[in-house]
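Worked example 4.2. Below are the chains of a multi-component assembly; read each line carefully before continuing.
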Amino acid sequence: MSKVAIEFAGVKKSFGNKLVVNGVSFTVASGECFGLLGPNGAGKSTLARMVLGMTRPDAGKVTVLGVPMPARGRLARKGIGVVPQFDNLDLEFTVRENLLVFGCYFGMSTRAIEAIIPSLLEFARLESKAHARVADLSGGMKRRLTLARALINDPQLLVMDEPTTGLDPHARHLIWERLRFLLARGKTIILTTHFMEEAERLCDRLCILDHGCNIAEGSPYALIEEHIGCPVIEIFGGNPQELSSLIRPYVQRVEVSGETVFCYAPDPEQVRAQLRGRSGLRFLQRPPNLEDVFLRLTGLELEK
Amino acid sequence: MADDFTAVLPANAWNWAAVWRRNYLAWRKVALASILGSLADPIISLFALGTGLGLMVGRVEGTSYIAFLAAGMVATSAMVASTFETIYAAFSRMHDRRIWEAILYTQLTLGDIVLGELAWAATKAFLAGTAIAAVAAALGYAAWPSVLYVLPVICLTGFAFASLAMIVTSLSPSYDYFVFYQTLVITPMMFLSGAVFPLTQLPGGLQRVARFLPLAHSIDLIRPAMLDRPAAGIGLHIGALCIYAVLPFFLSMALFRRRLMR
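Applying the procedure described above to all two chains together yields the following structure tokens:
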């Protein structure tokens, strides 16, 4: 098996006169979880579709599982499983029938599919729902069925476009747990997300996209160390402009986002001392995270 | 670019069967309602027009009007069944329910999907056309066993009209546009192809137009078979229907590629 699962080299794509991917390059190693992070419209989904050979790059090269895309997409897709942003399960069928029909698209025999359905249902915690209609499942169950469906061809590579968007926290944690289980079994995962927490928990490495450009790449820890590297104090409840000019001399950097002042403070006590005695302020001191990196790099706010 | 287009062509000779099977399994759940629904309309038309109008017009081209009309109804019902399957049901699978998108994640190509949909629409046309032919034969309006020759023609008619409708499906932004295809193409075609009255009743210009219509070619094959008469120009009619089946298939693949795989 090749060591490189996905390679993008200088990839560009425009729709009409809108440039959505502007010279993106990255490499995903086998067995790695790689995140494409960015706000809505950053080009994440377009990159995910390029991995599947469903969108042609205008320029640059995309190689997936050792073959050029989209020219030899069919060969690559035999080894890929997909969890799309919007569920596209077959609502006319039951849970079990969905898996049976989907396996047929990979040319599997009914007997071969029936043999693996129990393990897929167990993986997705849907054993008791085998004969339920898909339309009757909850959002979390549908996602888990989509994940089970993506595994039917025993893929080396999983492509996930915002796998937990729209799920409640409980359902989201269950998906994360299942994805870590797959990573432990050696699968490669590429996922797009705009949830910082998801990227921090799951991804070995990630790249941050903004306006179609790859603006930073590395492990979550390395990116946080490199770009922030000190505790963060969030201050709410005062005039953000006034507060930021007051504490600017005592911190490494200060940024205002909405009504919140973000202070990147190697010495948090100094900041607190400056603001002591002011009423109506609320403080939150915490370790730095990916969202801080993103704010730093783009000045844009992401959803938590 | 050319290399990319070969990537959307059918990958092999059997991949399409998985798409056909998916549609068959979904249809099986509602088979009875579907069959009754699609047969009621043409059979009611056949008997209402056949007996009602038949009394007034008497014999047509040397046979009873209802026997003349039966052949037209077999071809028309095949046309309507495969057209509707393609513009409404396949459009829904492609557009609203994103089932095609899910299939494109697998080793199937766009060409495999379109071919599977065409085969499925032709299957529904075959069911609809065959049922009318069977009713007509049972009531003595079609000759046995020459009526058996209509079976492959119904199938080919289904393919040709599914293929034509696939172009409409690939271009249409929403369901609202399908009514134009129905009212401006499908319905006039029924009147211009000799389904309900002989082509000789049409003015000369329209008769020349009719020579190019796929339904006219289909009826020219079906009517002689049902009435056990010698057919003329069999090769021409089959060739015309094949062209209508094959060329739009390739055109619709190119259009779907532009729509779904930008």
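Take a moment to check your reading of the output against the notes. The radius of gyration of chain A is 22 Å. Chain A is about 35% helix and 30% strand.
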